[in-house]
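Session log. Operator J.P. requested a structure for one protein chain; no other inputs attached. Running the standard single-chain path with token output.
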Amino acid sequence: MISVGTALLMLPFSTASGEWNDPIVALFTATSAVCVTGLIVVDTGSYFSALGESIVLLLIQVGGLGYMTATTFLLLLLGHRLGLRDRLAIQQSMDKTELSGAKSLIRSIIATTMIFELTGVFLMLPIFMSDYGYTKGLWLSIFHSISAFNNAGFSLFSDSLMQYARSPVINLVITGLVIFGGIGYQVIMEVFMWLRDRVQGRRGRVVFSLHFKIVTSTTLVLLGLGSLALLATEFYNPFTLATEGFSVKVMMAWFQSVIARTAGFNTIDIGSMTKTSLFIIAALMFIGASPGSTGGGIKTTTIRILMVCTRAVLRGKQEVMCYQRRIPVERVLKAIAVVVGSGMMVICVTTLISLTDSNLDFISVLFESISAFATVGLSTGITANLSTLAKLLLIVTMYVGRVGVLLMMSAIVGDPKLSTIHYPEEDLLVG
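Structure written below.
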């Protein structure tokens, strides 16, 4: 998909000038779109033609759905029957524990995506139509709705959404799409089934899964703490929130806290924020969205597992418990591996870019590296001015962040070799 997107974006009909595109610009844009990141080296709305914007949007949609979901949906449209190999691939890509229901799952994902994206289009259409007319307003609504739900962060405005920082409709619709796109399809489907049972009059007790409880509670805590932290650190910043009314300050802090969960839009000039705020956003970006969603990062479930692990150690427990459920050791080990692998990736990329572009501020380089790895797309404004080597490093980082750091590491190391040998246990000092 990245290769095809790069080839198409290089052609003259993709640029507004009608000239051949720079290969690095085409590759960077295609990677950022397929990996639903949102980092850009050129202004999307002015640099690309209408056809080029459509190609970018198509790459975002396919990238957000995921390769297996998109290709399986096309196969189903063509009447193709899913074999065992197809079901196994879907099971692994969706992190499912069983093979059954693969076809219905794909259809549900496509239907859910269309419902949310169309809702976003209709809600934003009156705002954009009043400012730009019906035709352009419709295109802006479609583009930003798909970009928001897929947590891509691409915008057709040169200042992202800063001109709509005081618009409650745009702020609420964009953040709503980002939250639902980043919370994961499993959570959405559990809510849908709960609502369906209530509408049909089924009063049986609904038992939400452990995944649902962890994702929703962790997401609410992160959104709340992130909003309060950004409001406090930017409250008196004359370049961001100081000149705004209190309600606008709250709305802008909320928007940026939600967007830090891997979307990439901004209503605040990121480059003008305090270093404290940048560090807070970087932490939120690193955590990211939830499993099975369109977002990136180490995921909410990973950070929650590590938190309950810490609580178990402090309380002298031998098992990791959450909501009266025991978390398997395999999941704990995977969470640790994800954090270690992600941290190593960010450290390596930050170090290399600091060497290639030594004139840049360190916090900006770190922020850019985390944004690329977590497929967020927020930037302090240094992306376009990076050297070619630094841009290539960010391309690799976005790719690894979207594919998954563990999957990339296992692809390099090779398939695991199971052993029947058990070695003696020996204790050691930790911490």
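Operator note: Strands lie at 321-322, 325-326.
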